[in-house]
Amino acid sequence: MASDLTKVELIPNENAVRSGLAAYGYLLSKYGFNPTKPGPFTTVPQDQSASKGVNLLANGKANGKHKLQFKNKFGRPGRVPASVVQNDFEWLCPVKVGTPAKTYKMIFDTGSADLWLWSTELPPTVNTSGRHLYNPAKSRTFTRSAGSTWKQSYNDQISSASGSVGTDLVNLGGLKIRNQTIQLADTLSPSFQTIPGDGLLGLAFGFINHVSPVPVATAPENLAAQGSVPKAKQIFTTYLSSYRDAKDRDNKSFYTFGFVDQKALRGQTIHYADIDNSQGLWQFQSTSASVGDRQVALFDNTAVADTGSSLALIDDSICGVIYDAIPGSRYDSSVQGYVFPTNTTLDQLPVVKFAVGDQEFAVQKEDLAYADVGEGYTYGGIQSRGDLSFDVLGDTFLKSVYSIFDQGNSRFGVVVRTDSTQLAASITPRSHEPVRMPDRHTVQRRASPSTDSTSFGIKGYSSMNGVTMVYGSLILLLSLFSARGSVRLLLAGLLCLCLLQ
Question: What are phi and psi of 204, to 5 degrees?
């Protein structure tokens, strides 16, 4: 079997558009924590009878006691728009499902435990253009799971997906998993419809899966249970490159299943930390962090490795230390995150390290910059975890290491991976902020008349002259009807100039 194992190279999501506020909103929704820093997102208590399954973790093991709200432009909290709970999901992974096998582009997420696909059971009202739909009738190895359904919903009140359940053959990089549970989507909320690709494959632990009445095993767990893979090979690894390395052939992103890529190790010894999967996640001790020469002890602190999260979320006190070390940085409540000047150079950025077990690993400086927020500022890749009891080390951190998820030995391992080149933090990816709440100072600055702008060479022109221009245009228009010859042409030209203003 080993000879059949291959790297599963990730496919860049060409449509990924980064938004700091949306990525943070996605994590608030996914993990169900309460923000401790001001911004558009807030939480309110919700009925405990409705708390089960409202977020990533089953049975309220995270903060399912609250529901997420979003302040509108008038500062009033209300329903969360779908546009502000989106992750960028930079990479998709090809997975073969069914007999005959069909390839689907899926999101691999070590922070969830569901394997769901866009399916032919979705109603015609859902736009499926560009998707590969799973059709159970076309697979000879599909079996319907009678009496089982699935539903996943987040505490933002709008993100949900549900459907029927069956089993089929799944091929992950040469490892064939028989009778793997497939969750067929027949309902997708608008926010779930924004997720790229054809579905999601969770790589956390099965008891947080959303199949009812009984949660099911994830693909790696099912593979181990079938006994076809020895304990030493019950692993998967991930190598995530920065978007800046997309054209670098030596820095392709990939997963492996059943083996460790020796080339990616570069002769290094893997550093392992034991995991605690009691919350269904790849959770380990992370007892220190460093910012430049300053090391901070974090007693009893833990972190989770989450490939489905773009940002890294950490304790507020460490966030403050990091951004205090970056010249010109500040907390911006309009995007609910720390930002720093876009023209910051690499030598102005501190070396930031987080511990895996008792050993620290540095975040690549280029990944401290996540998304452009306009006005000369960049949204940081490290943000507040609110009242969440553990850190979330998402892609901001994972792009700096080669990660080994050793299920057979219940441990998480890493080695350093360093790009041959580091780009300046000022080079940021395509970004958009779907909702940016301007502060009062910004509003006043934008509303004030211009004192130094120029329009057609007229110094001091501003929008305050708009009323005058309207009346002038009307007078010129009336004059056209009575004028003749060259005078009419002159008046027509003046009217055009007025309209262009």
Answer: -85, -145
The sheet that has 271-274: what strands, in order across it?
8-9, 254-257, 235-239, 401-406, 411-416, 271-274
Tokens coding 498: 């007025």
The type of residue at 147 is G
Distance CA 1, CA 258 (A): 10
In a 3-state reduction of DSSP, which class is residue 41?
A: strand
3-state secondary structure of 65: coil
Q: Which comes out higher in pLDDT, residue 325 or 467?
A: 325
d(CA 167, CA 142): 6
Q: Map residue 432 onto helix, strand or coil.
A: coil
Strand 175-188 to 199-202 pairing: unpaired
The catalytically annotated residue of 88, 114, 245, 306 is 306
User: Which residues sit opposite 369 in a β-bridge?
Assistant: 380
More confident call, 287 vs 248:
287
Active-site position among 88, 109, 332, 391: 109
CA distance 397 to 367: 8
What's the distance, CA 123 to chain centroid? 27
- DSSP H/E element including 22: helix 20-31
User: Cα separation of 355 and 59, whole Å?
Assistant: 29
Give the total residue count for the chain.
501
Across the chain, mean pLDDT equals 79
Q: What is the pLDDT of residues 77-111, one digit of tens each?
A: 554 444 444 445 678 899 999 999 999 999 999 99
Name the least confident of 84-93, 113-122, 347-356: 84-93
Report in angstroms the alpha-carbon separations of 307 from 109, 111, 152, 344: 5, 7, 19, 27
For residue 168, what are the β-bridge partners? Answer: 180
Q: Report the candidate in 60, 308, 276, 53 with the shortest Cα–Cα distance to residue 202.
A: 308
Q: What are phi and psi of 423, to 5 degrees?
A: -90, 155
452 is catalytic: no
Lowest mean pLDDT among 184-198, 358-372, 384-398: 184-198
Give the Å distances, CA to CA, from 442 to 313, 360, 401, 433, 469: 27, 40, 39, 16, 27
Which of 168-177, 247-256, 410-419 bottoms out in mean pLDDT, i.e. has the lowest?
247-256
φ, ψ of residue 274 to 5 degrees: the values are -65, 145
**If 0-12 CB within 10 Å is exposed, 13-18 middle and 19+ buried, where does residue 135 land?**
middle
Res. 136: pLDDT tops 50: yes
Nearest to 116 by CA among 55, 195, 38: 195
Token pair 């100039």: residue: 497
Q: What span, in angstroms and rounded, lies between the C-alpha atoms of 116 and 202?
A: 9
Contacts of 225 (CB under 8 A, 6+ apart): 217
347: annotated active-site residue: no
Residue 82: what pLDDT?
A: 45
